Amino acid sequence: MYKTKLCLGIETAKELPYEERIALYKKIGFEAFFVDWKKEIDYKAMKAAADKEGMIIQSIHAPFHKMASMWERDEKTEEALCELMECVDVCGILGTDIMIVHAIIGFDKHMPNDFGIQNYKKVVDYAKEKGVRIAFENTEGEEYLACLMEVFKEYENVGFCWDTGHEMCYNHSKDMTALYGDRLIAMHLNDNLGIWDYEGKIKGWDDLHLLPFDGVADWNSIVDRLNKCGFDGILTFEMSRFSRPGRHENDQYARMELEEYLTHVYMRACRVAQLKLNRKQA
After folding, report:
1. How far is the C-alpha of 170 from the C-alpha of 203, rounded, in Å?
2. Which CA distances in Å does 54 have to 23, 38, 157, 232, 262?
3. 132, 163 contact by CB (below 8 A)
4. What is the spatial distance between Cα 234 and Cα 23, in angstroms, rounded to a whole number?
5. Which of 84, 223, 257, 275 is most buried by its number of CB atoms within 10 A?
6. Using CA atoms, how far apart are residues 240 and 59, in angstroms rounded to an integer?
7. Gyration radius (Cα) of the chain, Å
8. 3-class DSSP assignment, residue 18
9. Residues 19, 49: contact at Cβ < 8 Å?
10. CA-to-CA distance for 196 and 174, rounded, in angstroms?
11. Local structure of 267: helix, strand or coil
């Protein structure tokens, strides 16, 4: 895309072997992808496949299902910590210096504490040694994100990953770039329908990851905020091809053949990139 490199999460095409996914992304027009950390992945082979296609590995998304244990002393705390450390090491294998991290998991969690801070400090310090930047993502539990961003505000290797869909549901459409835009390292661009519940109670099924312009997001505002942050790096999109359990918003995508769907993603990504450029030049 003219003046902009476009990136898509590699799990969007999870039915294919990684080598085929990477080649398909390249064929469609993407210049980069990001990957979710999984213990069973052969990351050396993935890096080789990316190099063969001339593809950039933009970042790795750290595991997040045990993140509550980073704050609560339990039987999974050490395992959660070890997984994050291993994820830092994988950055070196993949040749990326960006690791996306959730501060918490759980909609009933609202009390960050020193135990969690010290656990995350171990990860941040280790990442610093390895030349890796930690980008904390906006999810549920804004108190935990605010805590970590404040504690590590002087750390050059700690910044922010802005998820536009999460902002509309998990963060009640609060302008997260107003809080952390000056520390923006990465993004997950996607659309959403906001909060489903009339009373405003947020739940996991609100996180739809629709294609841009298929939801209620104000994309003029999104690209304006990116421009205000001075972000001119890779535009990264995180999409879901399949609907949440009991929901049907993504069914239209699932009915498409994979290559057709990825082409639609690419077309929408180009539209966002061109909108960003146009409004920057206006």
Report:
1. 8
2. 10, 23, 26, 20, 19
3. no
4. 19
5. 84
6. 18
7. 18
8. helix
9. yes
10. 16
11. helix
| Contact criterion met (CB below 8 Å) for 83 and 37 | yes
**Pair of tokens at residue 148:** 């970590």
Helix (H) or strand (E) holding 7: strand 6-9
Q: Do β-strands 235-237 and 184-188 pair in parallel, antiparallel, or remain unpaired?
A: unpaired
Count of C-beta atoms within a 10 Å radius of residue 2: 7
- pLDDT values of the chain reduced to their tens digit, one per residue, 282 residues: 888 999 999 999 999 999 999 999 999 999 999 999 999 999 999 999 999 999 999 999 999 999 999 999 999 999 999 999 999 999 999 999 999 999 999 999 999 999 999 999 999 999 999 999 999 999 999 999 999 999 999 999 999 999 999 999 999 999 999 999 999 999 999 999 999 999 999 999 999 999 999 999 999 999 999 999 999 999 999 999 999 999 999 999 999 999 999 999 999 999 999 999 999 998
* Residue 197 DSSP symbol: S
Give the 3-state secondary structure percentages of the chain, helix then strand then coil, rounded to 5: 45, 15, 40
Say how many CA atoms lie within 13 Å of 266 toward its Cβ: 18
Q: Which two tokens stand for residue 275?
A: 């909108």
In this structure, are residues 196 and 206 in contact, taking their beta carbons and an 8 Å threshold? yes
- Which DSSP category does 249 fall into? T
- Count CA atoms closer than 13 A to 141's CA, side-chain side: 22
List the structure tokens of 51.
């190099």
Long-range contacts of 241-250 (CB under 8 A, 24+ apart): 241/12, 243/208, 244/204, 244/205, 244/207, 244/208, 245/205, 246/205, 247/205, 247/208, 249/193, 249/208, 249/210, 250/208, 250/209, 250/210
Q: Are 82 and 112 in contact (CB under 8 A)?
A: no
